[in-house]
What does this fold into?
Amino acid sequence: MKDNVVKDKSSRFAIRVVNLYKYLTSEKSEFIIARQLLRSGTAVGALVRESVHAESKNDFIHKLAIAQKEANESIYWIELLQATEYLSDEQFTSIIADAKEVISLITAIIKTTKKSLPA
It folds into this structure.
């Protein structure tokens, strides 16, 4: 079976987000932003999974475009958590790198797929 890098990385990112959510709610008593991040961060992997069974190339692109938006929203919440000192610089640097890597992969897949569409 062929490896699916974006599926694996988006799933690992979701796991990190869930663990960060648990940390933020139990250790920092931060619930609002943590919940927003939980929603957007886990949606990325779910949408990537959905795209695997897309009905068409356009549907595939659409699902990945939404995943891209959710990843971008996750970056916003992570930046806000760092700016409000809920995350250390080390925590921020690590998870933001994962989020940006997932966005880069999704963006590349979207661009490549669009090139293969008939003009």
User: Anything to note?
Assistant: The first helix runs from residue 5 to 27.
